[in-house]
Amino acid sequence: MVVDLQNKERYPKLCFDILSYMKERWPDHLSYHSISHTIDVANICNRYIDHYAIDKDNADLLRIAAISHDIGYLISPTDHEELGIIEVEPFFKNVLNKRQIATVKGMMRATKVPQNPTTFYEEILADADLDYLGRDDYDTLSIKLYEEFLYYKVVKTDEEWLKLQISFLESHCYHSAFAKKNRSSGKMIKLDELRNKLKT
Questions:
Q1: Residues near 137 by beta carbon (within 8 Å), at least 6 away in sequence
Q2: Is 74 exposed, middle or buried (CB count within 10 Å of its CB: 0-12, 13-18, 19+)?
Q3: pTM to 2 decimals?
Q4: Using one digit for the tens of pLDDT, what is the confidence trace for 30-69?
Q5: Fold for domain 8-199?
């Protein structure tokens, strides 16, 4: 599945520099945490930017964080948020000031599970990262995540994967009013489906 970046003209050049760096190096075994996922998260952030009428300066930082949030997977899935911050820091130097860098880093860290965002913009990126939990394409994307988890031996069987999904959906909550309104009900429907599947 190829996802196109929407509203490209609204992105700072830094985003395309980072995206190009990622595309040249991205490993094939990352079936879920792919470039398409990165772009999907950025596109979801665009909806939040429009919905909340976020000013350009903060919108730029949110877009930079969205593009950068999984770059740490180039190194390892473990602690990839912190690894990603180290990996992307050279791109920030001479482009962003200290406050802007701290803001972007905070948003990247907010995607770490279990999520604990502390600012409005951190809530947005955290919710955008897991937006699919309440969407119609949940099954398609969860299969990709399952393949990735099999590769890393996080799970070994279909039943383990089913139980892990249920546990995750039960513990997850959206943070922003926008996500709660537009994604929570879809997530709960999917949770009920998975629970019923486990019973059969």
A1: none
A2: middle
A3: 0.97
A4: 999 999 999 999 999 999 999 999 999 999 999 999 999 9
A5: Hypothetical protein af1432 (1.10.3210)
Six-digit token string for 178: 């926008």
Helix (H) or strand (E) holding 52, with range, is none
- Is the bond preceding residue 90 a cis peptide, omega within 30 degrees? no
Domain range annotation of the chain: 8-199
Contacts for 2-11 with beta carbons within 8 Å, 24 or more apart?
2/36, 3/36, 3/37, 3/39, 3/40, 3/43, 4/39, 5/39, 5/42, 5/43, 6/43, 6/46, 7/46, 10/46, 10/59, 10/63, 11/42, 11/60, 11/63, 11/67
Residues 6+ apart with CB under 8 A from 94: none
